[in-house]
Amino acid sequence: MYGGGNIFEPSNHNDVLNEDPVKLQEFEARIERGEKIEPSDWMPKLYRKQLIRMIEQHAHSEIIGALPEGTWITRAPGFKRKLALMAKVQDEVGHAQLLYSAAETLGKSREDMISDLINGKSKYSNIFNYPAYTWADSCFISWLVDAGAIVNQVANSKGSYGPYCRALERICIEESFHLKYGHHCVIHLATGTPKQRQMMQEAVDRWWAPMMHFFGPSDKISVHTEILMKWKVKMASNDDCRQQFLDMYVPKIWELGLTVPDTNLKKNEETGMWEFTEPDWEEFKRVINGDGPCNEERLAVRRMAEERGQWVRNALKSADMKYVTPLA
Amino acid sequence: MDSLDPRIQRLNFPKWEKDLEKNHLDQLETYEVFVQTKEGKPYQHEGVVHASNSDMAFLFAKEQFGRRYTCTGMWIARSSDVSVSQTTEADKSVYDFVEASANSDQLESCEVFHLYKRGKQHRHVGAVQAANYEHALSESKKTIDEQKTVYNVWVIKSSDLLKSAEEDKVIWSTLPEKQFRDAIAYKGADKIKEFKEKQANS
Lengths: 328, 202
Hints:
The structure holds two protein chains of two kinds. Chain A is built from twelve helices and two strands, in the order ααααααααααββαα. Chain A is mainly alpha-helical.
């Protein structure tokens, strides 16, 4: 589960000017023709750097994203919901494995990626720094956070880097169940007793702001973004993803008699665009930089898993092992 | 640190004192996974797992790649045991650059995998008897379909591949009793309709 709002590294035009012009031209022509770039192909340094960063953030988001839902497995209402939620959480962790491998083909080891996550140097999707207070929060995540992630992932699966696209295709197919399961859970609460309805409404109220943040701030048009778009690293702007999400899901929220806590939210029939109150980007920045309600807990849980599993990995290590970059 | 989750609360996490740096090979080696999705179909490269040996890799791979889709067989090879050819462009095939070579050394079985299209996965095409990787390419060249451009070739010694056993087929029948993982198991339209009617009438 991952939204837009990728934090790309700042770069300047020189990064590209220093590249071999002939190779760069061949590389761009390949992307132009719609062909994929494979790990063994030549690629500009900037392309490699930004892709590693993007895929790595995506992988971390899958791992951390499993935590707020994972805590609800033991308290899920009924055996069927437990089975489904367990399967969903397992899928998310599996997605992280697929994505770490895709990033690894670009030359960053999984050790380094995990170190950067647990030491707070890497980012992950901001929305998972918020707590899931009730079962209804977990239902909101399963339906709408996954829906948002699918909007972003479907766009990215048409990108230029082969291993990332292949991982995303698999991820998108697996997530179609998450979306339906999540919707089913929300329908159950929203059409249920007044108490259930109230619980669902409160979850929507709590999660709406983080959901709007999920796609990231408006992209500034810069040379930088233009290159990422041209190289098919970034496939859709944050605003496009947000609009697509609103268009697909706001009517589905409304039809359940739920309200969205933004009185300005409406579709402008003339432009076809959704209008809404500008999200609080100061809060977004504050939380992504570590000061959210759950940042500390999320990383502490990961660090504990690392520390407690260390002896097992040490026992499995043998002297004749050698690392090679995975192939595809 | 206060958590909503009582189990996390009970863990009473120690204070974050220093960064944890993972050591080299902490995540062990990588293994390439090949999957057969249906009886009779060729094995196809599906992805990578980290593990300490091929048995453990098989266990992880079965969970990772055999969990949600039909799967009838799985092969595992250490990434470092895969010999990778050059990658060709446009209408050039890898085999255009392979010269015939004879070799009378000890021969052994080698599995050959072809990449027919960029962006797709390597597919198993068969096995040849060869003395080394180079010889395997020249042996494989004798059997290829000239109509198809091969952009990349992987060769793996059969003895380096862990293959799922024929008599263990039953391990792949994990799907029918787990329909709760299918989107189709979740139907809500009737409930929404009923709800809307009730709203309209009240």
